[in-house]
Amino acid sequence: xxxxxxxxxxxxxxxxxxxxxxxxxxxxxxxxxxxxxxxxxxxxxxxxxxxxxxxxxxxxxxxxxxxxxxxxxxxxxxxxxxxxxxxxxxxxxxxxxxxxxxxxxxxxxxxxxxxxxxxxxxxxxxxxx
Length: 129
Prior knowledge:
single chain, two-stranded antiparallel ribbon, 38% helix, flat
């Protein structure tokens, strides 16, 4: 008795090679609402790079190969080292190159004089660092 696999038609295409920024309308709207529309082109370019098949493949490899603790060597001497799959190193290299590793500590820049149609100091004074 021979058996063949049925053609599967109810599966969506793999979600790769798309722009992570421009495909997220709420994020794009929030950018304009918070007075950072001048960053739209840079974020669209970043979204394109981060949404590539290469980045998703690296992320998948990193997730499938978690860091491994090496507490001892073969003779019992204490090592306390962590071994990372090469995908982890490549992801970190790319994210550092984008400057994403220092986001919270970047130099604060003053926003435009008006934001959301209101004066900045009165509308957003609680958000200033």
